[in-house]
Write a structure and sequence with these properties.
There is one protein chain. The chain is mainly alpha-helical. It has one domain. About 80% of the residues lie in helices and about 0% in strands. The two termini are about 25 Å apart. The relative contact order is 0.15.
């Protein structure tokens, strides 16, 4: 299972970076890449042996997190779009006159991105906490142990060392990277249809 995560981490890295260039993938490649992630999620979720009842208890908290993320994305888009004309004018001026963009604009962009980041972080913490609570209350000790031991955090974040993490930290990592993955809700809905 951990070998699959390594392979997927490499694939995500390749797909996530255009090696310094903006590159657009074909719609089919994007759709297939989404299926790669679904495979990874299934690899992590199926060993939990969740029942339909358990999935149905977990789904609402995952949906709330998903809805909030969509709402935050729309708010973020509005902030970014509001800056578009200033940024476009600064780019044009910088290219035509050979001058760096004005410091005031750089400060405005930095402030906007910092505010967005703080809002995302606060929302993420709230939803991770809520999902960990529901998962812990819903799943038995064996299922929690499977979740705790299913991922190797250092493969996704080299600063983390699984042998130095508590079980609570590992469970939080699992919830963050598996249950709150953007595609997890759809996977859970499908699993609920066939779960005992």
């Amino acid at each position: 299972m951990k070998h699959i995560v390594i392979c997927l981490a490499i694939i995500f890295g390749l797909f996530g970076h255009g090696h310094g260039q903006t590159v657009e993938h074909s719609p089919k490649a994007i759709a297939t890449f989404a299926k790669f992630r679904q495979i990874d999620l299934l690899t992590q979720i199926i060993p939990l042996a969740l029942t339909k009842e358990q999935i149905n208890k977990i789904l609402p908290v995952v949906e709330r997190a998903r809805s909030k993320a969509i709402s935050l994305m729309k708010d973020q888009d509005a902030v970014i779009e509001k800056l578009d004309s200033k940024v476009s004018d600064a780019i044009k001026t910088s290219i035509e006159k050979g001058v760096a963009p004005p410091k005031a604009l750089l400060n405005e962009i930095a402030e906007a991105t910092m505010k967005m980041s703080l809002i995302w972080d606060a929302s993420a913490t709230e939803h991770i906490d809520a999902t960990v609570k529901v998962f812990t209350e819903t799943c038995n000790a064996g299922q929690r142990k499977v979740a705790i031991n299913s991922l190797k955090p250092e493969l996704l974040d080299p600063s983390l060392k699984s042998d130095k993490m508590t079980d609570a930290e590992k469970l939080r990592f699992f919830v963050t990277n598996i249950l709150l993955d953007p595609q997890a809700y759809g996977v859970l809905v499908q699993l609920a249809k066939t779960a005992p």
